[in-house]
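# step 3/5: fold
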Amino acid sequence: MSTNDTTVNQSDLYPGLSTADAQVLIARAVSPDIAAMRGYRSITATDARKAGFSPSQARGGLEIPRHNTQGIIDDLPQLRPHEPRLDEKGRPRKYELPFGARHVLDVTPRSLPHIGDISIPILITESIIKGDALESAVSPDTYCVLSINGVWGWISNGAPISDFRDVRFCEKKNGRIVRRRDVVLLFDSDSVMNPQVATARYQLTQHLERRGARVRFVDVPAKPDGSKQGIDDHLAGGHRLADLLATAYAPKEPTAADFPEDPDDAHGTVIKLRLELADNRRIISGLFQTVLSPHMTPSEKVAYLSTLALAEHKRQDGDDTTELSPAEISDDWRPVPGKGETIAPTNKNGSKPRMSRGKVRPVMRVLVSRGLLPATPRTVTRTHANGTKYNDEVWDVAPVNLAESLAQAATWRPETPTLRKPRTNRGTCPHCNELHPIHRQDTCTGCGSIRSTTIIQPDVEHVAATIADSERIHLRQISGQGVNGATEDNTTTDGLSSDLRYFIGGETSTQLTPVSLTTPAVLSEIAPTPAPMTRNAPLVLSGIARERLPVPNHEAGFRGRGRVLFSCRSDEVQAQILASERAQS
């Protein structure tokens, strides 16, 4: 440290600092112990030249050592000159860095042990002195304070600086984030008015979130006269940091509408134009995603998009009353048809309505209940062309941000998603003509390995009902013919015979609707599939007879199509079969 006539040791508060530099730290709420940990010192222009500053930069001032995330003091410090030079716009340069100095993520010495502890929240501000002011305002081991050199000081050569890799922002298990670290950004008060600062803050947020952090914003209030101030000025004014942190909120992407026009700020105008372009891209993206959303019906999409477009158009035209009628939303101006008339397919001007006017009210109520449209219904009295009055419902639509509203609609999901019906086997096998579970495998076409296996169970009820209905029709048609050719009315299902039961696939455990079988001729016209039949055992039947084999004793084999099963539980049925055969022969 160099000393001369202008240097006064402040051994009681800030040793090694001039009175002016000590007052700078006092005015910014930096405590003496934090200043001692940092290693501030007052230097002359000669000392600045030795520290690496160019002749145009070398001036007397406050030297600020930079502590990186590895606990090493950078070779090139920061300088806060007493008499700052002016930039190309005539504004004073409050801080200087030697040419060639890289950006570092500064860590206050007391916070260095905590950069790997995700249980301790992180506070990030935009200068080292502001970071030391934060460290002075918090208790030890409660926060980890980091600082960047200006709002864009976290980027070098178009990419985030590597120092962020030394800070742990989340906890992972098996490659998945299981716990996120809380990070609070405390930029200067102009972050809500300056599009450049707001954009830098939001892009830093995106980078931190990609690294697993949970980021929150804190807006430092401006001075009472409206001028800009930082967190250090706010704390020096006697305000508590805890009260300010209680106002933290989730990050919000800045839009062009958030900032006023400033013709004198050319760079801010460029940033605002970029934000407008980003807004338009978000609107187009949200529009396409909303149109393609499978969770909204076509009528809901038409009503939603029409309401947004018409309300925005009215606001741009200076119409303060953004009320919309069902006819405007649906573009349905067709008159109510008279008695015996049909509604016209098009409007009087030849245009086709977007949707029916009568569907607007229920659809709008659904959209409002979902929170997608900030609209309020209101009843008005209108007059028909014939002079009769009627009540109509109009909707007062509140202003919305199109990009945010479309993004909300595109990502809307019902609270209880619609469950797809399980895949079932609804038909019999075309090869064995029976109903069995289906074994399905998904195989990789590259290596041939089996990726997954699925067993599809048969839909017994569906097939049983289908077979029962079709066979009931056949049996009823056949049952109208008696043994001697006389017609009998046996088409009712009253008094159904217990000797005939339908089953599926030969499994007697599944009993279906019984069918009337009161005429022996019915059995003579039914040809079963080849299957043995014994007394009190099931017999497989199907369709109308095609071919029948001779049956010795009480055993029979039949050939036919389909599969229907009935059980023979008495000799009377067998006697009826033989009697019908003899009658036909």
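# step 4/5: annotate
The chain has 15 helices and 21 strands.
# step 5/5: archive (pending)
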